[in-house]
Amino acid sequence: MVTRTTTINDPVGIHARPAAQFAQAVAASGCTVTIAKQGGNPVPAGSILSVMGLGIKQGDAVEINVEGDNADAVADSLVATLTAAE
Fold this sequence. Notes:
By secondary structure, the chain is an alpha+beta fold. The protein has three helices and four strands. Helix 1 (16-29) packs antiparallel against helix 3.
């Protein structure tokens, strides 16, 4: 398992559009991925509603855990997807 931590800088946090883009990237990766606010309970990252349900706001640190083939590259790509949506 590979873990990445990033801080959300988008002033409105993770709302519908970035959550959808992130969930689509997770589904396309073929890996098992969870996302959580740092120190919180992880949820399936492929579910838009689960990601939005975390209530991630600007300044929150999130942890992304990836299991599967090419997990390092997938984790880096998913972090880039989250930060590009900002």
